[in-house]
Each structure stands twice: as C-alpha cells, then as structure tokens.
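[Q] Does anyone have a clean structure-token version of this?
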Amino acid sequence: MFKRMSLTLLFVAILSVGALAQQAPLQKIAINFPTRSGASWPMFMAKEGGYYQKYGLDVNLVFGAGTIGV
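[A] Here you go.
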C-alpha cells in the first residue's frame, strides 16, 4: 500500500513540474544593423534558424544607416 501511494505521489509531482515549465511569451526586441554586408549575415541566419526564439526573443532586424555620432 505504501509503495503504491509513493508511486502515485511521485507521478503527480512529475506531472505538476511539466505543467509549470510551459513556455513564457517571447520578449520583443529590435536590433539595428548599420550596414548591409557580410558582417550582418549572422543576425539573419540566427533569426531564420530560430535561435532567437529558442532563447525567448522575438527579434525585429532594422536597417538604419549609422553615422559617426551613433
């Protein structure tokens, strides 16, 4: 009887941990890149590959010409 009750409680504990580990909403951020060159390719590859989403980010890549003052 004790063994059966222990297994039941263990099973319920495992299920409750899975329910708590649901994914949080993605955090929206914008990344400005100043040039359209090979240096910015990794950002686009990471977005297309889903790496940002894997870490909870919803990334918007924005082109904006940079100046010396930026």
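[Q] Thanks! Anything notable?
[A] Residues 2-20 form the longest helix (19 residues).
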